Amino acid sequence: MKSLLLTLTLFLGLATVASAQKKDKYAEMPGSEQISEARVADLTRQMCNQLHLNEAQYIRLREANRIKLARLDEIQWQYKADPTQQHAKMAELEAQYEAECSRILTPSQLSLFRTQQQHDTAPEQPVGNEGGIG
Predict the structure, then answer these.
(1) Is 32 helix (H, G, I), strand (E, B) or coil?
(2) DSSP code of 33?
(3) Disulfide-capable partner of 79 in 13, 20, 23, 86 (CB 3.0 to 4.6 Å)?
(4) Containing domain of residue 104, as a range?
(5) Quick one: which of 104, 103, 96 has its CA closest to 70?
(6) Is residue 91 part of a domain?
(7) Longest CA pairwise span in the chain (Å)
(8) Which first-to-last residue range defines the signal peptide (predicted)?
(9) What would the pLDDT profile of 19-44 be if each residue is shown by its tens digit?
């Protein structure tokens, strides 16, 4: 009986240590765990409202968004010390995402998507000379 209790205690201790080490790994790599479903749902819902997606498109786009967000977090973590490489990988990811969207969306939806993307990425021009000298 004592050996059974000792074996069980030893096994429980090893399981606890392994669990703690796994949590430490995820603390070091925040993008490696599962991507937040709320982020995926918000992004997909926003696109659904703008592009008027049907149900099949919504499902396929949600999976593409899940992959994109997971890979984006991974790139940001992996290349945080090298901003030029990070930007290059992010541009490559964006090109892959747009290619996937072109397979999912209709031509009119794709056109609307691209104009929305350009609008989102274009920097806002300052109005007037507020806060400037002169």
Answers:
(1) coil
(2) S
(3) 86
(4) 55-108
(5) 96
(6) yes
(7) 88
(8) 1-20
(9) 655 554 444 445 445 668 889 999 99
